[in-house]
Amino acid sequence: MLNFNQDDTIATLVKSESLKKIAALEDKHIYEIMQLMGDHKLTMIPVINSNEVYLGLITLEEIIKYFTESSSIAEPGCILVLTIKKRDYSLGEIARIVESENGSILNSSITYLPESDLIEVTLKLNKQEINPIVATFERYNYTVKASYSENDYYHLFQERYDHLMNYLNV
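Predicted structure:
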């Protein structure tokens, strides 16, 4: 808990031990900066050099923009979520399965499920048609938790449109 009164200046607060100095060094990796922001529930973090000279500021918005631009999120393709036992996880095996269906992994991430020996592996693939890849994963006894494809939405809307047209023609 911060211990200060209304008459304290910022200089006084900075010198006090009750105010944490949280900053990212300029040579830190973006993942380390995200961890620091998450641990302290920050939406922005100052960047300093080794002499503690302020160099700038990184905002949560900038981090999201960075990941959107650099991690193939904007690329066309589908998303696949697998549930796997931690000890059975092999990105090489997963890539082999995707590549056997002429696909490529554009991005992957792992989510550890609390109090479980399972993980979720989220894959961004370069394919629009996901059904053959899902079928192959299931053939290899992988649990496909979810799949998202732009084609799914198109087919859903097309089906609804066809039903509407049939209704109007009756």
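Summary: Residues 150-169 form the longest helix (20 residues).
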